[in-house]
Amino acid sequence: MTTPVTVAHIVQWIDELAPFRFAESWDNCGLQVGDPRAEVSRVLVALDPSLHTVREAARRRCQALVTHHPLFSKAVSTLSLDGPPGSVVAEAIRGNVHIVSAHTNLDAALHGTNDTLARAVGLAVHGPLEENPAAIHDPRYVGLGLYGLLPEPCSALDLAESLARLVGIRSVRLVGNPEKSVQKVALCTGSGMSLLGRAIQHDCHVFITGDVKYHDAHTALDQGIVVIDIGHFASEAFVVAPLADALAAVGRSRGAVLEVMTSIGEKDPFVTVIFNENRRECVAGAIEISGGAADSGK
Questions:
Q1: Residues marked as binding for a divalent metal cation?
Q2: Tens digit of pLDDT for each residue in 134-185?
Q3: Do residues 217 and 145 share a domain?
Q4: Assembly and interactions (predicted)?
Q5: For residue 199, which of 77, 207, 230, 252 is within the disulfide window of CB 3.0 to 4.6 Å?
């Protein structure tokens, strides 16, 4: 690649990996803050566009911050600098950090959040819980949420424990009978309870997601489906490293001089506090996102 890498190139490469047309109509993917013409030699990939990750990008001399979650999820009429998202925008401008997000387009893409989790649990995928008719013929599209079969049946409790070990957490929330035998599984990373009905329609034994609300839990109980809530953060954080690797690979294929690295120390904002007669214990919702080493795209 004879010309310098720009922010526009980063956006284009993400579109090649997880086309923005895969995104939900309400979503806000792509460039969040910055100049498409700005040159980029170092990229930081993270889950969230927070003050922490923007400052980390600036400290590590990264001109671009690629995140899963967007900075703006809805229209903004006023941008105040005394709190997010305005404070994040101000920090990004001060640090010369350009922010790009790949949200529900990545959720629905091959090697995206849902596909990565399904592969990790060994799911033989039967299909998506929700699909975009305009995208189903694209080989990069898998759909929003997936369902299929585990290699062998197991108890819901055993599956919950396996998930906890897989994503690096010490606690999960489970709705339903822990001893129920499960094999047909639906999953949707992030906040996926809007797809519970689809999981029930497919006769799934268990639904894996995050951000489960009280009344939705009762719906699951009434319908006889087990729900395993591994948390929003834990269900999506593991996609950060694969996304960084994919961007670095595209850069290498273009002959670009580009370093791509992952954020150090992003954490689940929730901590579970356990009390008993003798002591109390604070249990982190998930381990920190590992990574940080630069991957040269030379």
A1: 68-69, 107, 232, 236
A2: 899 999 999 999 999 999 999 999 999 999 999 999 999 999 999 999 999 9
A3: yes
A4: Homohexamer.
A5: 207
